[in-house]
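User: I'm putting together a teaching handout on how sequence relates to shape, and I'd like one worked example. Could you take JmjC domain-containing protein from Gossypium harknessii, show the sequence you're using, and then write out its predicted structure as tokens right after it?

Assistant: Happy to. First the sequence, then the structure tokens directly below it.
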Amino acid sequence: MAERSGNDTSTKKNVKKIEGSCFFQDKRKNFKCHQCLTGRKAVVPCLKCKEKVYCTVCIKQWYPNIPIVEIAKQCPFCCGNCNCSICLQSSGLIKTSKRDITDEEKIKHLQHLIESMLPFMKQICIMQKQETEVDANIQGLLPSEVEIQQTLCYADERIYCDHCATSIFDLHRSCPKCSYELCLSCCKEIREGILSIRDDVPYGYRDRGWDYMHGEDPLPESYLQEKVEKQPGPSIQWEANNDGSITCPPKEIGGCGDCRLELKRILPMGWISNLDTKAWEILSNCRIRQWLKTLNGDNTSGEGHIDNGLYSSTSTDNLDEGFRHFQTRWAKGEPVIVKNTLANSSGLSWEPMVMWRALCKRLEMPEVKAIDCLAGCEVEINTRQFFKGYTEGRAYNNLWPEMLKLKDWPPSDKFEDLLPRHCDEFISMLPFQEYCDPRSGILNLAVKLPHCVLKPDLGPKTYIAYGVAEELGRGDSVTKLHCDLSDAVNILTHTSEVALSDEQLAAMEKLKMKHKAQDEKESLERERLKKGFDESEATNWGDNIIYVSSGEFRGASIPEPLTSRKEIGGALWDIFRREDVPKLEAYLREHYTEFRHTYCSPVEKVIHPIHDQSFYLTAEHKRRLKEKYGVEPWTFEQNLGEAVFIPAGCPHQVRNLKSCTKVALDFVSPENIQECLRLTEEFRQLPKNHRAREDKLEIRKMIIYAVERAVKELSELISTPN
Ligand SMILES: [Zn+2]
Ligand SMILES: [Zn+2]
Ligand SMILES: [Zn+2]
Ligand SMILES: [Zn+2]
Ligand SMILES: [Zn+2]
């Protein structure tokens, strides 16, 4: 399976042209407002550049928080935060990296990266060696005599295993007849007889109608479209031949069933094992260099020390306190919150209307796609209406708050092209850029792929959604519980608080009672069904089923009382510890029927409690999770300007307490590679039609290219005398 990219560079060229016209403005047009380019009467000239003027109308509309006297002293253009259409389309106006890293720091970081990657390089080498040995055995040759044919694979192509959908980066097996491709993990599992067939599973929720979602009766059964439950077909066995060779699988699971799969390679012969050797060599060179420096009494770099002949590279004395603190927490798999990142920025406006104006220049977008959080469905809405609701709120006819989330706006893979100035601003705000800078982070494995290789889409992405402080219990503006393959950083760049009227609050109380009654009614029905089933055929289940008496059952959505606090944050986060994942999963498997998902339908089936992304734990569920399993997430409110670092593999969920604009970016740190690989393996085992399945990160490919690049950079650094 292959997919190709089309790299469109034409948009970038346009930006350059516009940039030029912004810098070299004709002096005679000075009376024209820089922002709106019209010659209005009331203008404020800038005392600094003595060139640009901004009209008072624009100042009021687009710079409402900057006093006019400040603008007269130094105009937005001089401050670097002008949000006129031309400036918003320019990139490179501000410096995005916060500090220059010294060569000694670079050496230390690269050493750390290579050292962290060695165990994974070793795993990759062993797997490749084992498969080559199997092939030697089949052909009656020595492993060194095995000739492996190269597959034609373009750099801008991705090859996936046709069975488990993980990315193939080098050795694999391929059918000469139908070009079915199989990864080495699958080959191994077939030989060990533990390969799972991963049949498609039926999904889908019934739409029981608008009334049902608001706590009333469902539409009569006859209106409901029955789900098509696919009966699992006869189980297909896929076994290896006696000599270890593998035949292309039968048509039912995607192959031709005819030919033996041949061992193929993508990279040059021995490329990875050579790289492994080079990595070891460069590390020992670094150690010798450090040792010589210590002998010469030069210990200014402070990196590592010789102790009983053992080298330790853990010392980070010369790095600032904050970075060290971050690294310690990060290595333990704990999230990190950094306050006030907006203070580091040039003050560009994150007002959604400013971003929208910038986008309108490039895309015609009268309508946007949004997710209605109650039904969990996509809706189309007029863009202006959406943003009106962002600041003023929206409600259904019965006054229940209508929570909308913009879907993929601006289109995520084009953020950098469409909003170049905002992209620069976001990167400049990022703390710990060594880890997360999407262009040059020295410890970010995701930026080490060669230019020609197709890169994963890691953002930045914008998330614009409504929110309300009170937990609704149903239709809340949430990102449901999920777990990302990579690390991520998320900055809250803009909020808008929407006040609910007394009339609305009263209507909401009534509706909540209805929701509760519906929850209880359905819970009783489920219990009756379960009991009937139990008596008829499942009497031997014994103590495995825990029954909840109706009096005890409190419904899935008891909202917590809104405490009377002065200042609330923008978004409520719950991040779970990796070590709590088994208990969290057990809780969800036990209680899934108490949750609602699409069309507010109760969840009927769990494939994977976290990767399904169909649960949000309300305050009541969190309380019970703590009571029954002793599991408690890190819970905190993200305030405006705060950056949240989420380590790969920590399940998390978010609820918006205000209308929020967040910008998030994925990255891959050396500390969490183990977790990325564990998750990749978990995703591999999901059914073939599961939404989370595809290996978009291609983590193993990332590892080998990161080591290659780091070895190259490190040898350049230590060979230059300083
Ligand atoms: Zn103007
Ligand atoms: Zn100026
Ligand atoms: Zn401007
Ligand atoms: Zn596979
Ligand atoms: Zn075939």
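A couple of points you could highlight for students: The first helix runs from residue 10 to 23. The two ends are 49 Å apart (CA to CA).
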